[in-house]
Amino acid sequence: MPETDQNNSGGVLSFDLTARPWIPMLRVDGSQDELSLREVFEQAHDLRRIVGDLPTQEFALVRLLLAVAHDALDGPQDIDAWAELWADEDCFAPVGAYLEEHRGRFDLLDAEAPFFQTAGLRTAKDEVFSLNRIVADVPNGEPFFTARMPTVERLTFAEAARWVVHTHAYDTSGIKTGVQGDKRAKGGKVYPLGVGWAGNLGGVFVEGRTLRETLLLNLVAADTSNLAIDEADAPAWRREPCGPGGAERAPTGVRDLYTWQTRRLRLHFDDSGVHGVVLGYGDPLIPRNRQHREPMTAWRRSKPQEAKLRQSPVYLPREHAPERSAWRGLGALVSTEAGTAGGPEPAGYLRPGILEWVARLVTEGELERGFLVRARIIGARYGTQQSVIDEIVDDRVAMAVVLLHQRDRRYAEQAVAAVGDADLAVNALGDLATNLARAAGTEMEGPRSSARDLAYGLLEAPYRTWLAHLADTDDPYARRTDWQQQVYGIVAGLGDRLMAAAGDAAWQGRIVQLKHGTEWLNSALAGKWFRAALYKGLGRPDSSDMPPDADASPAPETTVKAPA
């Protein structure tokens, strides 16, 4: 099959994204394929998920598919309309006619309105730049860490289409070359205006068993509380083509935000592929207080911004921490401590609107309590004034939707408390590592950090398994006890290994300074404090495992407490 089609105007190149394969998909049977937009919706029941070049590309493409679905289905307007879609195996049938109607705006190479691009975009010197500017897996100045070193010479049209979508979502900030017609350009440059819209977010969406389920689970109804969707909400392809420069305006809803044109770009190509790009800034959008528009991130209250702006509350997207696995941050996903900002004191954080929506579905009985979903988290960590992407976060937590139930909070409370059990045990192990190092007279921070990392690593798989089956019981409190016993066994075993490896110096010990005076600290005393801390926090899992003096409280002034 040729790389491009010839359109009807006589030899002009065309790459129609509604008909040409360009989205890489994983099928339910484990095979991979590349499909067109039309094929993705036709076969959604047989597809597992998108497999992009990067996780951030997958997030950007999911949002693109959701914008198509929202617009083609004109909703759903309410939960009853959503329930009809969920029950209809052929719910995406209207998408085919919709794509046909708008196919002219989905041509990547169109001369007048190329997909997600600006026709005729040029610099004053007619410069054409390397594709490194839009391919995010080529770190600037770090060519030895990529398979494409040292530069990207060419992309297929399918690859280029994916990176165009990704650029609007995650492009870096920094000084960019000014384009003709952009009034913001000074001396041929436009100074930093921020990263692509999704780059501001701690991205969250819900995965089902198939792509069909995933799209429907994230298809938020227009009447969802705390989410504002205007009647005029429309995706980029139903708006006037973008000219050079940017427009200051507010988003109209999810279709608008999912396709927000944060950049102005134009691909340069020949009949065998794309070989260059012109890239500039597009429509700026400040992420502050967008919680009523953007549902695919959690939000945190910013006291510094409130003081600076003299208004309250001020919410910013809650970004993901690369060093913290998703299961350890479960509270931000399922806890209702965030609530709404309607109380006397505004909430410290707000959980993602997508999860509020799924909570509504299970609370109103549209989803069975034991229905299993995966909360998928994807985000980018930027460095050096947001001019490079340092790290990408990609994780998921499988859980039954009952954890999101708005009126039965028992399961969510025990799930979050179980993370607290893990934190308590890991902190106790860190204290043990610190005390063993103190007893031996060696450096303390390295052993403490290594012990904590090892413990979290060994607890992760058991917790995920425990969480996925939490809905199998009518008594989540009993399951919590089972989990505490698992934690005790795993971490106590790690403590035994640390003590065995501590060596003669720690066994002999030395005098250390305490708040109340001095004491002889050795591995035996450090071990006693460690077991007592586990017992106090997790209970007695097995009486034969406990030393006779385990009930003694640890001396807090002899340990260096780990940060939460």
Automatic annotation (TrEMBL):
Region (Disordered): 541-564
Gene3D superfamilies the UniProt entry points to: 1.10.132.100
Signal peptide segment: none
Biased composition (Low complexity): 544-556
InterPro entries: CRISPR-assoc_prot_Cse1
Recorded superkingdom: Bacteria
Transmembrane segments annotated in the record for this chain: none
Stated name of the protein: Type I-E CRISPR-associated protein Cse1/CasA
Organism: Streptomyces spiralis
